[in-house]
Design a protein that fits this description.
Blueprint: E1 2-3, H1 12-20, E2 25-29, H2 36-46, E3 51-55, H3 60-69, E4 73-75, H4 81-89, E5 93-95, E6 97-98, H5 101-109, E7 114-117, H6 120-123, H7 127-135, E8 141-145, H8 153-158, E9 163-165, H9 169-172, H10 175-187
Parallel strand pairs: 1-2, 2-3, 4-5, 6-7, 7-8, 8-9
Helix pairs in contact: 2-3
Length: about 190
């Protein structure tokens, strides 16, 4: 789940709701507001049972802010070798975004154990599975993200991705769609 707000402190009610519903991982999108770092520090302390990560890490400045805020991991919509190297030196897990076979192969060659297929809705539900034979195994652990809805979670998992990330629109719809997702996941073999 990825949440966005100019002031991350405003996300506290949504984070509380997500924690109560059993969500374990939530990403907070990086922003340039002066309060982003202290707000995120506060949220990390206030929600110790949530694994909070930084989203939209595309630049060295965003990575530095995520590190200063105290996040233990981050996710990027892009594959940027320099960011991955800087993150590794800081012992910070950075998940790069990939879309093309070349990007998937490059991420694999850079040693990325996890990638984010982004924007997943644009390439379709069977895309990841279609990459397996041409690229050869093993493919990295794949998180499908971008344009997916609650009803997409189970079909995407069944189609071969390892995880699905949903956007903040899920929270705006109230707890029912999230409950449906959690119930579908519990029924998964």
């Amino acid at each position: 789940m990825v949440l966005r707000a100019e002031r991350p402190a405003l996300l506290a009610p949504q984070l509380g709701q997500l924690a109560d519903l059993g969500v374990r991982h939530v990403e907070i999108a990086w922003g340039t507001s002066p309060g982003w770092i202290p707000d995120c520090r506060h949220l990390i302390e206030a929600f110790p049972d949530l694994h909070l990560g930084a989203a939209s890490i595309c630049t060295p400045a965003a990575l530095a802010a995520a590190l200063e805020a105290g996040f233990s991991y981050g996710v990027s919509p892009v594959l940027e070798a320099e960011l991955l190297e800087t993150a590794a030196m800081a012992r910070f897990a950075l998940v790069p975004g990939v879309m093309t076979p070349t990007e998937v192969n490059r991420a694999r060659s850079l040693g990325c154990p996890i990638v984010k297929l982004f924007p997943a809705a644009s390439v379709g539900i069977g895309y990841w599975r279609r990459l397996r034979d041409p690229l050869g195994p093993p493919l990295p652990f794949c998180i499908a993200a971008g344009g997916l809805q609650p009803g997409d979670v189970r079909p995407w998992l069944e189609a071969g991705v390892d995880a699905v990330a949903l956007g903040s629109s899920l929270v705006a719809q109230g707890p029912e769609p999230l409950m449906q997702v959690l119930e579908a996941l519990q029924q998964r073999p």
